[in-house]
């Protein structure tokens, strides 16, 4: 078997996920109540038998570093590791990474000092489950120099993706970044009949979109990075690879979500609460790993819960109703509170008794959600203090709003940032 090194890109500023990325990088954003986005690619690597992993970080990376160091510990005999490669000034480079390809280029010494055959490059902010051994097999059987994972998509989705055209062997022969005109779409059209011959039932999805998952021969990747100035994989390096190298597609047709916007992030979490969710964290053979916190069981007193996920260490008061929602670790929710279509991220710590007494004297709400609240279609970030009788509903159906000091609205979703304090009877 070839030796494979995995590089996970820690993401840029994450402006489209703001304010969730105000104090953390995209891969560190909590998802599914108790996980972080970075847990997805790392778990996929481990479940695929790949345990030598570098995570390349730059922006707001402290919480990401802390999570990785507290979670991924390998025994000394396996040779496995998850190691951080943080952006740094060197004698050759004094600036920040200029893009995904530039980040990998600057870290070439770390994956060439040992004898690796293949380099697997992954994003740190996607939700999917994949056995990378299948992709490695596709790469080797076709004697490819580079292989890219591809997903069939419909026309509207194609306009926002990098789209490939392939020949009868699955080799990539053309690529168009975000084709919006009929002429460009026609150039990268793949007939559903042809996809069916390759084992994909495409239906009304006649375009093959890049998933941003790349597998390179190490020598090919080093040569391309060293001889060029490309700063981004999707926009520059991958199109260049098509011209002079054998680039193969690895077709994938299961759930995959790029967590790029607040709307997509909110939907991905609420979808987890369905009876048959499109992505299921409870998947025995290929689990998603995360930090073990050793929290107590959640305590629910006379609570009505429908189609929801309740994480560890929560306390939910009598008479409350939780519907189609995800409740994160250590969440404290008062009595007679209704929460619908909402992701409550919970808290980092339990408040000590002396802090609770200070809250009573200062009339500051405790960490969590107060009593008699109604919260719908929202995201409440960690350690927020929501007082009693608060209403968060966006009844006016506002799509975007940035001017309030304590909240923002993105894609009609109300987002309460981390550490926010909302006084009693606030209305949003």
Our measurement of the CA-to-CA distance between the termini, rounded to an integer number of angstroms, reads 57 Å
Number of domains: 2
Report the biggest beta sheet as strand number plus sense, adding barrel if it closes. Answer: 9 strands, mixed
CATH architecture of the largest domain: Alpha-Beta Complex
Calculate the mean pLDDT score and round it.
Answer: 89
Strand % is 25-35%
Structural class: alpha/beta
Q: In the CATH hierarchy, what is the superfamily of the largest domain? A: Spore Coat Polysaccharide Biosynthesis Protein SpsA, Chain A
Low-confidence runs of at least 5 consecutive residues: none
Helix fraction by DSSP (H/I, runs of at least 4): 10-25%
Shape: globular
Describe what this molecule looks like in 3D.
This protein has twelve helices and 30 strands. The chain is an alpha/beta fold. It folds into two domains: 4-271, Spore Coat Polysaccharide Biosynthesis Protein SpsA, Chain A (Alpha-Beta Complex), CATH 3.90.550.10; 299-422, 3 Solenoid (UDP N-Acetylglucosamine Acyltransferase, domain 1). Strands 1, 4, 5, 6, 8, 9, 10, 11 and 12 form a nine-stranded mixed beta sheet that branches. It starts with a strand and ends in a 6-residue tail after the last strand.
SSE diagram, text form:
Layout: E1 4-9, E2 30-31, E3 35-36, H1 39-47, E4 52-57, H2 62-71, E5 81-86, H3 100-106, H4 108-112, E6 118-123, E7 126-128, H5 132-141, E8 146-153, H6 155-158, E9 162-166, E10 172-177, H7 182-187, H8 192-197, E11 207-217, H9 218-227, H10 233-244, E12 247-251, E13 256-258, H11 262-271, E14 299-300, E15 304-306, E16 309-310, E17 315-316, E18 321-323, E19 326-327, E20 332-333, E21 338-340, E22 343-344, H12 353-362, E23 368-369, E24 374-376, E25 378-380, E26 385-386, E27 391-392, E28 408-410, E29 413-416, E30 421-422
């Amino acid at each position: 078997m070839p030796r494979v090194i995995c590089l996970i890109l820690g993401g840029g500023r994450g402006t489209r996920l703001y304010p969730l990325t105000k104090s953390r990088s995209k891969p560190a954003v909590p998802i599914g109540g108790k996980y972080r986005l970075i847990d997805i690619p790392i778990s996929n690597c481990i479940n695929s038998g790949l345990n030598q992993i570098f995570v390349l970080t730059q922006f707001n990376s402290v919480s990401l570093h802390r999570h990785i160091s507290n979670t991924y510990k390998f025994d000394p005999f396996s040779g496995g590791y998850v190691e951080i490669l943080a952006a740094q000034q060197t004698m050759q480079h004094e600036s920040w990474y200029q893009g995904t390809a530039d980040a990998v280029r600057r870290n070439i010494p770390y994956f060439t000092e040992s004898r690796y055959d293949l380099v697997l490059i992954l994003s740190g902010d996607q939700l999917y489950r994949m056995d990378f051994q299948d992709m490695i097999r596709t790469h080797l059987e076709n004697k490819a120099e580079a292989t890219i994972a591809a997903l069939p998509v419909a026309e509207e989705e194609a306009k926002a993706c990098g789209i490939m055209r392939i020949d009868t062997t699955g080799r990539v022969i053309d690529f168009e970044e975000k084709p919006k005109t009929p002429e460009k779409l026609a150039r990268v059209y793949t007939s559903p009949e042809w996809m069916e011959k390759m084992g994909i039932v495409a239906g009304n999805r006649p375009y093959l979109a890049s998933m941003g998952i790349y597998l390179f021969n190490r020598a090919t990747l080093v040569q391309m990075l060293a001889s060029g100035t490309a700063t981004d994989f999707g926009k520059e390096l991958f199109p260049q690879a098509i011209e002079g190298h054998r680039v193969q597609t690895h077709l994938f047709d299961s759930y995959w979500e790029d967590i790029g916007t607040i709307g997509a992030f909110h939907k991905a979490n609420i979808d987890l609460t369905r009876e048959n969710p499109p992505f299921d964290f409870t998947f025995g053979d290929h689990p998603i790993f995360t930090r073990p916190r050793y929290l107590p069981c959640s305590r629910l007193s006379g609570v009505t819960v429908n189609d929801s996920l309740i994480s560890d260490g929560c306390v939910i008061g009598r008479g409350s109703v939780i519907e189609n929602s995800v409740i994160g670790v250590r969440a404290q929710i008062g009595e007679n509170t209704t929460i619908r279509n909402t992701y409550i991220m919970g808290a980092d710590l339990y408040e000590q008794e002396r802090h609770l007494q200070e809250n009573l004297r200062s009339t500051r709400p405790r960490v969590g959600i107060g009593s008699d609240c109604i919260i719908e279609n929202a995201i409440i970030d960690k350690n927020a203090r929501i007082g009693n009788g608060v209403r968060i509903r966006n009844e006016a159906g506002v799509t975007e709003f940035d001017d309030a000091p304590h909240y923002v609205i993105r894609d009609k979703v109300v987002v309460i940032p981390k550490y926010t304090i909302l006084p009693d009877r606030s209305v949003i």
